[in-house]
Amino acid sequence: MYLKSSLWLPNDFMVDPVLLALKFTQLAITKGVKFIEDCCLEEILTEKQRIINVMYLLIVQKWSWARELGFQTSPSVRIPTQACEYICLKTKPMANFPTIHNPEEPIFSNGVPDAFHFSLLPDNWDDFYWILSNTMKRFPILAESECKTLITGADSFTPDGRLIMNESAEVSYLFNE
Question: Which end of the chain has the smaller Cβ count within 10 Å, N or C?
Answer without folding.
Answer: N
